[in-house]
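Slide 14.
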Amino acid sequence: MAGRLSTADADREIHRFVTREQIDQLHEQFRARNNRLTLDELRELLAELGLFYTEDEYRTLCLQINTDHDRYCQWDELLSYLILGFQDDDPHAVKQSLDPPIAGDLCVKLRRQVYNIVKVDFCPMVYYDGSISWSQGHWITTSREGVIQYWTEDWKPALTARSVPSSLKRSKTWVLDTVPLPDLSMFCVTGLETELRLYNVVAACFTLKLVIERLPQPISAMAYRFGRDEPSRLLTGDYTGHIRMFVFHPERKVTTSGESTVTHVSLQDVLHGAYPPVECVDYGQLLPDIVRAVQFVESVGNVAELFIACAEENPLLSSARGRPRPAMVIHSLDLPAIRRIKFCVPRGVTCFAFEPSNELLVSGGPDCDLRLWDIHRPEKPSVVLVGHTSSITFLFLQDAGEKIYSLDQRKIIKVWDVRNRVLLQTFGQFSTVLVKGVPACAYYNKRARELVVASNKLFVTACCPEIALDRTDGESHTKPVSVLLYNGLYRLVVSCGFDSFIIVWDHRVNRKMTIITEAHTQIRNGVLEPVEITAACFDGKEQMLLTGARNGSLKIWNIGGRTCMRTIQIEEDCEVTGVFWQANRILAMGWNHRVVEFAAFAEQDEYPRGLQWRKQHSDDILCAAVSGSEPGVMATCSYAGELVFWMLETGQPYRRYDATNPRTRLPISFREGRADLMKPRKLTPRRSLFQMPPGQLAHRRLTRILMPSGLEQMRQLSIQALLFLAMRKMLPDRGTLFGSLDNGMVQVWSHHPDGGFKGQFNGIHMAGDRIITLATDKANRFLFTGTALGYVKTWYIENCWIPNEDKFHVNKPALRILFPFLLNDVVPGRAKRSARAQVKPWLLNSYQAHRACVTGLTYLDDTGLLLSCSSDRTVRLWTLGGRYIGLLGSPVNWQPLPMAVPPPADYRFRIPPDLQREVLAVEGSPGR
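Slide 15: predicted structure.
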């Protein structure tokens, strides 16, 4: 992020402009001056390289480089600035995912089964014209006892059958492998009996049709391949490493004698062509031990058709063999072999996966290691990934080989990043829901990007699911977004959420610049877990970020270096609801009922545990705001509705009001005991802002978003959000502070000692809604309100609650001339009618911006953009007129936004897919 200049053009950013030789020249200049230059000397050196800046541009550049806040630039500071700039421009940086690869809950499809499942497969639908539909078909599960069950796509029972040996001498079987033959409407079963049993599956029938018998060894692995313009092939591997391929020709008919409908044919007859519908190609003993998996692969190089087979060493025979033997082989389908590649792996290979686009081959086996192979250099693996503690039984690749998913015998799944060779996730929930001691089988549904794992039960979980762009633009965070800030120094957006993520965005091009995961953590029951971020702010120079969390911890972050500089605590298990950085002081408040003051830098802190201000609240502090005018004033409001004004210079309260009776002043408490006596009884354990399940009754410690009207009438009103108008002077007759109440009203206050309540207006248009967040522009012309039901409203407040200027000097047509990016008639009927009786302020527009509560709003004056965040995990961009631009973090990119001007009139605006129904309803409403 440090590489982004806030005012300079992109082509004048240092890391993009200088060459390697020029960096060496700069280093020589620094070494000649004891590795530091004054800021003026640095400017002269940059000018010699051709980089010229205005005074404002260079001041901004120095703030970004000079992290020591002195008048010198160290070589380490400049080098760190260049490195971070190169990292920001890395195209792979934007691919960092917020969600773990397996993020969703396990979905149980089949509960406890009578017979344990050893194989799961999917049989697609094949039409009469030969076309294949993978969106339609049947799931198939198999047990060792030969119980075969067909299921519909949504796992409803369709057919149950049983496979038994073709000879009447035995009534039971032990199934080794199965495979469906969709184009032939058949199903193939192999067991300990040395035969292949092929069943006809038509309608609800499951009848034995063909038996290929007298095989030398039992078949342990099979793979099937078919297509419209190619023959159907069945590849098999047996217990001694022999590989054979059966080619089916159903158009060839044979006449059968006798009354039996089951055809029995020996392997030798098939090899010699005595049974025309089936041909066999015998590749011989390619592997020395039990074949565990075989697979057809796409063309590699100039070889059109190949297969891969792997074998696991027989532990009873391996001790007698000294030299390494091939455990995996790549072989051409044709004989003589055009290509044969052998891979030697200690103890053998039990599973593998191959990606033809980059020729990546991954193998896993009983030695618990994953090996990545370059098929052109089979002598040794290119990478070995270590992490499993038991034999690897199943693996698959995703996203053209960017991720590897591996499953071991303990039912632990590990996800690996191939590019960086690191472990992304260890997922162990399957080991807790499946019976222990019974092997599990798995199947990866590539079309739905879902993993099916089964033994005594069957579960499905999503693996990096794709976003349905026809229904949503995606998400910005993995949990509700609680804080949204704009950094004017770097011209970047910062969002924080309940997932404990801090994300820095370049909103102009929809790009993640920095992701800090697990920003706040705590140890609970011996497990390190992330803590929700509930408040944040910047320092005056916008170089540092201060965050507050659900557990009462505060952290100071270096924005340029992306490091945590300091951690402090206001109180244990005390949610922080407001933080402010005033000069060299940090003010924090929340569920502790108080304001706590810290020194911004540890070396200046005389009170490491914080200096507590006088207690004036009898309940949790919900919101606070700091004025931008002189003298500095802070306002705080509690859950009990107590509004207190404080002098920032002295930390003393000077006015105290009750939001329910705004014209009545409350006495200021000068003794701790008085406030403690007013402290209400704790009704329930504390829970945070968005942690209420849908439909649950709300009460004082659950939520501020949804509250039954009956319960609301039984308690005092509280203020949900406070906002000072920085451009208005502190005068008794001027409204300088807005506060939104639970009932949807917005109160206007003067924070002057002789001021007080000045008026109020209704800010909602739907029953049960309430205003959660407030924002304004720098000139205090517009007020933006975000509600619990996801609505955003824009109000014109420039001359409101100012004596002798309360009447508007501009009408709405003139207002649209001044601000051409305001739309005409963007207020729906119900919202317009709710504000019709209000003289002030003007409601300019009202639209639904989110599906859930709007938790933050930020207006960018230079570009006329409004950013909103919500508990629906999204951060969205809007114009001042309410036109949708895009969602931060969405795979749907938008046209790059200009640096310092509003979007042009011909900009490609969109409608959020998840809000299209609401937008169409608004456009057709009768009140527009």
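Speaker note: The first helix runs from residue 14 to 17.
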